[in-house]
Write a structure and sequence with these properties.
The chain is mostly helical. The protein has one helix and no strands. The chain has one domain. The longest helix is centred in the middle third of the chain and has 23 residues.
Length: about 25
């Protein structure tokens, strides 16, 4: 389903954001 795909993409982006903040030292 489309919703499932969007949810997966959203989770992936959340992880990317988390990695970016960690790399900045925050």
């Amino acid at each position: 389903e489309i919703n499932e795909r969007l949810d997966k993409i959203k989770k992936d982006w959340d992880m990317v954001d988390r990695l970016k903040t960690t790399r900045k030292g925050g």
